[in-house]
Protein 1
Amino acid sequence: MKSTDKNFIERLQQQEEDALEFIVDNYLPLIKGIAYKILSPLKNEGIIEECINDIFLSIWNNSKKFHGDSTDFRKWICAIAKFKSIDSYRKATKKVEFTSSYTDVNLEKSAEDELIMMEDRTELLQLIDLLEPVDRDIFILKFFLGFKNEDISIKLGLTKASIDNRIYRGKKKLNQKATNLKLGGSVV
């Protein structure tokens, strides 16, 4: 039996390899597009290809957790691709190599300064987790992945004005929450 539009999900859950081949043939452009959009700022094809492989491996390993039809399946693999790509981006940016000229210029940063910056970043991520899902996505795309407001509006299907308003309101909410939680500093 061969995988088709009607049976590929069931065959994937039964760990039939032809189902994975069917998924690769039909969904590779979609997954590749998501991975490239998130990882292209790294300018490293190897990381992108590795991420795409990780996405398909995750689809294979977690197929039994999926319940739904082919429309839901498309959304499910898009979510996997998005989060795997963001994870790959985070891992890659943590492994940035420092050249000797960079370290000479930044000798004034102490270990304490680095620790404070890491703690601030952790606190900011905890605060962002308190936002609505759409606002959380906007903040991650804008401030962690470096997307422009126009690109975010296209990606999320919202107007640029809506993105600008959500960023403004989100910053206000984060400042209020930081003050209420007595985390100190401001989120701007």
Protein 2
Amino acid sequence: MTKKAWGVGPVAAALCALSTGTLSTGTLAEPIRTQPNEAVLASFDIVETTIVTRGDTAVFTTRVRGEAGRDKPDATGRFEGSSVYAYVWPTTLDSGAIGFDKAQGIVALAVTFHPDFDDAANGGVNRHVWHPHWVVLAKDGACGGGLKVIDIPKGARPKVPPTWPNVPLLIDSPDYPTALRGDAVQVEIPVSLITGIKGASFDGVTSGLKVNGNLHAPLLCVSDVFKVASSNLSLPGKVSPQK
């Protein structure tokens, strides 16, 4: 797979600033539009990212230069060291808005594909399809991309959503309508399920993640950042009603 990482260090620093409330976010109600970049694989080359509300539904959409979802990680036959590809919407939402304890880290919606393991709620199977997750991220220098999905330490009993997939991570596996058609990835979520979504700020990212080969914390790292819609993770998007 040919790809270009967009400033992994600055992206990690920006996410760290977001988690501490020191990052200044933008106020654009329009989509985040991005120039195509031939150095990025077309299926991950973001050209537009939006989150809008349509009545009682929040609609997350990312458009790319190529066919959305065309490229997937190769299966390895093992959970350890396996890869995940993702279309991600980092937001200013609080982790309490999606069913975890408050102020745990950076909340992002991610549409993922990982052929080596299932992480659907209630023991369901999802390794064969692109599917949505809420994830809570934090900075970690042990990860190639400088970020991780936050681990749940052994013996800890944090608050988790009803669709938590029973893995030691701050990750949720809700069954939201998700579609990849043509150049677009889209997820629809009832507004009532996301406290604070109206007026939240957001950005768009395409990335690769990797499961730790030793299954130790950090268990799931961001290993590559393919592209950031704003280029600097300034979260210039603002959730607003669709015009």
Protein 3
Amino acid sequence: MIERPAPRWALWLADAIPLMTLPSGLWRLGLVAGSSMGMLDDAGHPLYAVSTGEKVYIVFLTLFSEVVALIAFGLVKPWGEVAPRWNPFVGGRPVNPWAAIVPAILGALALIAIWTYGFRDVSTDDFPPFERPAGPP
């Protein structure tokens, strides 16, 4: 039993979700490729040297983030409503909505946790104060 098509806003949002995680993934892959990504010490040298183990972790984290973001398509596409026939136990049967909703929620929470952890040490003291240029207002 296939339900009616998803609303246009839901389709747009499902398309936008993987694009939202893409910039951070590309930034991390830049680190793996050897770029300093603008993080330089006072002498102008790269701030971080990424070890081989860290490179593997960064690539895995990037791929994991994109896969989690792509789960959103299963919430709005018809193929997300019926299990694929090649699946030995549930193939061809309707998918319980919670089987799609729970991974999507867990993925969103995982991305929130990743970003929260990434900004754990950032404070307003880390940024210089904004100064207005002299001249007419």
Protein 4
Amino acid sequence: MIKFKYVILYVEDVEKSMNFYQDTFDTPIKFITPEKDYGELLTGETSLSFASVSLASSNIKEGFLSSKSEAKPFGIELGFTTDDVEKLVAKAIENGAVLYEDITVKPWGQKVAYIKDTDNYLVEICTEIQ
């Protein structure tokens, strides 16, 4: 059996990044190493995980593009659904995120906004598709 088990974001400060997601999206911390270079959040069957740039560099010998706050976000996004997009966007901004695309309503009725998290990763905050 094959399962999609986790997504790992490479970040400078694992604990800080995990705290942003815990405080903003109410995702409890499942695990963090004593060295605080890797951790996982409880987000359902698929975990949202974080690895320090230095740990990732030791695993990915060919290197990778790191997320830079001055650059546009990568062409990938994390998505969180909520009944109250306005409230969750405001909470994310309070916790250090930056509004990237303001709230819009799609032709199919879904409310969608985009933020950049504290590590410049793109996060979609939206209602469920009806």
